[in-house]
Amino acid sequence: MDIHQFTAKKRNGETIRLEHYKGKILLIVNTASKCAFTPQFEDLQRLYIRYQDAGLEILGFPCNQFGSQEPGSNEEAAEFCQLNYGVTFPIFSKIEVNGEQADPLFKYLQEAAPFRGFNEKNIHEKLLKMMIADKNPEWLIGDSIKWNFTKFLITPDGAVAQRFEPSDTFSSIEQEIERLLA
After folding, report:
1. What is the pTM of this model?
2. Is 35 among the residues known to form the active site?
3. Tens digit of pLDDT for each residue in 131-158?
4. Which keywords appear in this protein's UniProt record, sorted alphabetically (predicted)?
């Protein structure tokens, strides 16, 4: 199984088959516009500009499951990204990434790339773990997505190469993108 077998809904409700991206490196991200990690849109857009012509596509999936940080409509989520961060990569319809209503793509991504655990030496991860323990302790268990801006790097043939947590550096993501492009 690979991600090309899944579909996604564009923000206008139209369904697209992810096989449309076959042959490209993908970075799939669950996003939110009112999150402490929201400025990562700048880094995501920078990566997109730098590597799009080489075969990178970034797919953003707004999600309101984490602290209700994406409360608006599909269109409002996309407009926020474009107006505030100049985002030109696709922003899809809002989805859920955890629980019974989780999008099948994100269920698959979690199975294919399990959670590596929290790095207690990283202050951002330590604080994130404390916040999750307070607000959504059920997400501390297993491979669920822990917060907004979890990223999954996908190979051109649709395999999940790596999972990046919200606190992972963009230099580490960029190194892995370059490794796949080589």
Report:
1. 0.94
2. yes
3. 889 888 888 888 889 999 999 999 999 9
4. Oxidoreductase, Peroxidase
Active-site choice (18, 35, 44, 102): 35
- Whether residue 139 contacts residue 146, with contact meaning beta carbons closer than 8 Å, is answered with yes
Compute the distance between CA of residue 74 and CA of residue 95 in angstroms, rounded to an integer: 10
Q: Phi and psi for 79 in degrees, rounded to 5?
A: -60, -40
pLDDT at 139: 81
Q: What is the pLDDT of residue 90?
A: 96
Burial status of residue 43 (CB atoms within 10 A of its CB: 0-12, 13-18, 19 or more): middle
Q: Quote the tokens at residue 141.
A: 């268990």
Measured from the Cβ of residue 121, the count of other Cβ atoms closer than 10 Å reads: 7
Q: Measured in whole angstroms, how far is the alpha carbon of residue 22 from the centre of its chain?
A: 18
Query: Mutual orientation of helices 74-85 and 40-51 as an angle, nearest 10°?
Result: 80
Q: Hey, what domains does the chain have and what are their CATH numbers?
A: 3-167 (3.40.30.10)
